[in-house]
Amino acid sequence: MITVVLLILSVITGVFLGKHFGKKEKLAKNLLVLSAGFLITICLNEVFPQVYTSKIGSSLGIFVIAGVLLQMILEALTKGFEHGHFHHHSENNILPMALMVGLFIHAFIEGIPLANEKQQLSPYLLGIVFHNLPISFILGAFLFNRKNESKSSPYPSILIVALFALASPMGMLLGNYFNPDLQPYFLAIVGGIFLHISSVIIFESNKNHNIDWIKIGLVILGVSLALIMHLFHSHP
Prior knowledge:
Shape: globular
Pfam family, one: Zip
Organism: Chryseobacterium oleae
Membrane topology: Multi-pass membrane protein
Distance between the termini: 22 Å
Transmembrane segments: 27-44, 56-74, 94-112, 124-144, 156-178, 185-202, 214-232
Number of helices: 8
Number of strands: 0
Protein name: Zinc transporter ZupT
Largest sheet: none
Structural class: mainly alpha
């Protein structure tokens, strides 16, 4: 129950902040960089060790690659929402339906491995929560600050938010019906998704290869938070 509440609350909180502070792109991008440091550390310290220490670990590299490729395909629909590409009012190259489908699949797949998490506040769960906040911030800024939003019904936007908020819990629910032995496969796919998103955020934030000490500091902070979580929770 706590897992579901955290997943939904992370989306609602991010959308609320995006709706009211959506013009502050720097804030959202700093949150993304912070979450990227956290996410890549969770991926390397938590997800991949579980994948490669499983009985079938040696053959799961192809599923990690599949996760990377899947995320690249989904970004054709979302136009890069997952790693901070803002879409302003004048842009018509992204449709709410495509955005809804892309974000739903992304979050749904991330939720499947949660079905077999033994700890309520696992680093894997917190990695999803940390990443949901900046994505939802950008989503709220895009959906609720469009020029035509006041002229049309808000329900399509609310529907997109609701589906995104419920996608991971629905994935977790479906995961309960899978054989637990399939857990490494799903973790490998999600690990590929995490690796692609976090690396793109970190490398894209370094424009013209100039040193940005604030962004470096945010990455280090995100990494440090994830390492603290790694040190202070039990490992099976």
